[in-house]
């Protein structure tokens, strides 16, 4: 550990992720559903612990009317973020290297305050002094009425993870190994403990499934998740007490599916929950019933009320658009760790309505069904489909140009070996996940948009993968240099890209 990191693992950089729950549009929707007034237009957004800044750059490209600031302690992250936005010509975003301890002590006056503040994941990775400083930084930075997003490891679900994390970090310190090796060695050692029927692993039967899960995950993510000196999942009520120092009040979960976690509970579990009227205790008890291990929550620095008439008007004018269908067209959605089977008479008419394009809630209420649909019924269905990724909030960007430019930079970077796998879709007002192969083909398409030959595109894809030492398909070896033959699978990928993907991206104004 570096002395300047305060026990936080900075040996290897973090991942290049994007998390939809952090976006201003998403936070606005959560606030509206919970009768809280969302920030006005031309707002300012701060991300604490922004990592490489890739996700923040995507948000800035989609919302050129907002101003964005990313703060991180790791200079590698800040350097990357600054280069990315400079290459893309984004002028509404900047990155600053800073320590929460310093910011808590002396908040830069010229930074001002922000209407949105977010911190994804790192809260329960920090030592107590740094965690307290982070809360003080939130107090300095959040304007009255600001929405604050905070995600963190929580109890009781992390009880299984606690011994795993402790041993992984202990073994790393004892062996003095680098993070990647420490993760691999630690997974093997935990596997040996399970095979040896250790009393600890027998007492924690879920640890076997957890170990199988993390063995498939990104090693950079795992190092940042587990290899810290301070790793302390908290109960929800403990978190509420801690952030009260920043005058933050709980709004709701940021996961809109969590608004309806009760539908995953048995009748007996519902009866237990009904014993508690207090919102905080109900959240704790729900966490107990579903064994929650990770929360994504929204707070407000002053819960400015949205009056009932305003809320109804805002919700009725909220638009959604479908971007995928449930797998196999099955109306099965993941919710609070469980699978929920949607009623065909509720969801099928809504899915059919989305086939003709974007729909506002006022239109969806009128979609024929077996019984009249209320505003509450409609919002509930939208929340569950939104949570599942079947639909997205439809708020097109006022100016598509910044997103299109950033997308070109992303495609060029991936062709050079960068690990990005998201693009901005300004017509949707959202970010979409894509593959490295799609981005390589996208780069070739942008260079030669008139070319429509799938075999030619497949050859370029395979050649680029060979240069990068990457495989064409999962679990295959890397494509060898100088390979002349083109597999039918590569041609199939290229044909799908030219016939389907590029047309969809064009409609979404990706380019």
TrEMBL record:
GO molecular function terms noted in the UniProt entry: methyltransferase activity
CDD domains: AdoMet_MTases (cd02440)
Keyword Methyltransferase: yes
Methyltransferase domain segment(s): 46-145
A Pfam family that the UniProt record links to this protein: MethyTransf_Reg
Gene Ontology biological process terms, A to Z: methylation
Keyword terms: Methyltransferase, Transferase
SUPFAM superfamilies, sorted: S-adenosyl-L-methionine-dependent methyltransferases
Residue stretches making up the Methyltransferase regulatory domain: 218-301
The protein's name: Methyltransferase domain-containing protein
Organism: Sulfitobacter sediminilitoris
Lineage of source species: Bacteria, Pseudomonadati, Pseudomonadota, Alphaproteobacteria, Rhodobacterales
């Amino acid at each position: 550990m570096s002395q300047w990191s305060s026990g936080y693992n900075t040996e290897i950089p973090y991942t290049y992720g994007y998390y939809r729950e952090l976006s201003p549009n998403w936070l606005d929707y959560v606030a509206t559903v919970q009768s809280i007034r969302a920030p006005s237009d031309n707002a300012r957004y701060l991300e604490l612990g922004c990592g490489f800044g890739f996700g923040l750059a995507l948000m800035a490209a989609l919302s050129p009317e907002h101003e964005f600031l990313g703060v991180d302690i790791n200079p590698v992250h800040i350097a990357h973020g600054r280069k990315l936005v400079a290459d893309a010509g984004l002028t509404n975003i900047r990155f600053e290297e800073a320590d929460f301890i310093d910011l808590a002590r002396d908040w830069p006056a010229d930074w001002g305050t922000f209407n949105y503040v977010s911190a994804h994941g790192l809260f329960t990775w920090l030592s107590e002094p740094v965690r307290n400083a982070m809360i003080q930084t939130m107090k300095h930075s959040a304007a009255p009425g600001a929405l604050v997003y905070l995600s963190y490891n929580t109890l009781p679900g992390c009880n299984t993870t606690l011994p795993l994390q402790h041993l992984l970090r202990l073994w790393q310190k004892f062996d003095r190994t680098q993070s990647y090796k420490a993760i691999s060695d630690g997974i093997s050692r935990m596997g040996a403990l399970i095979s040896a029927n250790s009393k600890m692993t027998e007492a924690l039967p879920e640890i076997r499934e957890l170990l199988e899960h993390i063995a498939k995950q990104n090693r950079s993510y795992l190092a940042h998740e587990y290899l810290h000196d301070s790793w302390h999942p908290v109960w929800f009520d403990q978190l509420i007490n801690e952030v009260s120092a920043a005058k933050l009040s709980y709004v709701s979960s940021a996961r809109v599916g969590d608004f309806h976690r009760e539908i995953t509970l048995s009748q007996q579990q519902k009866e237990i929950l009904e014993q508690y009227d207090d919102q905080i205790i109900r959240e704790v008890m729900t966490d107990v019933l579903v064994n929650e291990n990770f929360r994504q929550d929204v707070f407000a620095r002053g819960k400015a009320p949205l009056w009932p008439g305003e809320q109804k008007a805002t919700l009725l004018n909220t638009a959604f658009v479908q971007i995928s269908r449930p797998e196999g067209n099955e109306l099965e959605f993941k919710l609070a760790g469980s699978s929920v089977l949607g009623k065909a008479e509720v969801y099928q008419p809504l899915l059919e309505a989305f086939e003709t394009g974007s729909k506002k809630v006022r239109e969806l209420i009128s979609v024929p069904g077996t019984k009249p649909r209320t505003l509450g019924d409609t919002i509930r269905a939208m929340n569950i489909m939104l949570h599942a990724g079947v639909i997205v909030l439809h708020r097109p960007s006022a100016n598509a140009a910044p997103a299109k430019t950033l997308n070109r930079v992303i495609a060029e970077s991936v062709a050079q070996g960068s690990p990005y796998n998201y693009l901005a879709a300004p017509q949707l007002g959202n970010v979409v996940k894509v593959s490295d192969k799609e981005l390589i083909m996208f780069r070739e398409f942008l260079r030669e948009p008139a070319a429509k030959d799938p075999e030619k595109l497949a050859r370029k894809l395979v050649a680029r993968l060979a240069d990068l030492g990457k495989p064409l398909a999962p679990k295959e070896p890397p494509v060898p240099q100088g390979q002349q033959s083109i597999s039918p699978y590569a041609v199939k990928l290229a044909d799908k890209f030219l016939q389907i993907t590029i047309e969809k991206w064009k409609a979404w104004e990706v380019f």
